[in-house]
Amino acid sequence: MAIEKWLAITSVALFAMFAGEMISIYSYVVDPPENAMLDDSWFDSKIFQFISIGVAPAGILAAVPFFMTKQYGSKPIGGLIVAGGVILLVGMFVCYTLLDQINDVYLTDIVTNTPVLFMGLSPIVIAVGIYLTKQKKKRPKKEFF
Asked: Transmembrane ranges (predicted)?
């Protein structure tokens, strides 16, 4: 496999990891254990940590194969980038549905706006992947002389 495909696979894995982390942290705050000592800054700092570990590298790793293959297109790489965008969209939608169940103490701007922000980012990732799948390979010019 070419390096572009491995980068796209890693991007999908990081998108899935970020969605899983966000769902788990939102689910944890919906029903925290009785002995948990939580404050609102803990929740915000974990979200920033998950963004820097998961979705920021995933976005970069989705952009690199795009730029490497945009001249000739690639259906498998485009499909992987679309899959990463769909995973991100579904994961952030699940987090958004959990917002109603979270205690008001933990609801800050970061907590409420992060799922919306990344739900807005995921159609861009999906569009980039679709662009790669629709791109046709350019035929080399034949030199007769």
From this structure: 7-27, 47-68, 80-99, 111-132
Question: What pLDDT was estimated at residue 95?
Answer: 94
Mean pLDDT of 132-137: 81
How far apart are alpha carbons 119 and 6 in whole angstroms? 25
As a whole number, mean pLDDT of residues 59-78 equals 88
- The answer to whether the beta carbons of residues 43 and 25 sit under 8 Å apart is yes
Question: How do the domains of the chain map onto residue ranges?
Answer: 3-134
The answer to whether 26 and 102 have CB atoms below 8 angstroms apart is: yes
Q: Which residue has the higher pLDDT, 34 or 133?
A: 133
CA neighbours within 13 Å on the CB side: how many for 134?
7
| CA–CA separation, 54 and 18 (whole Å) | 5
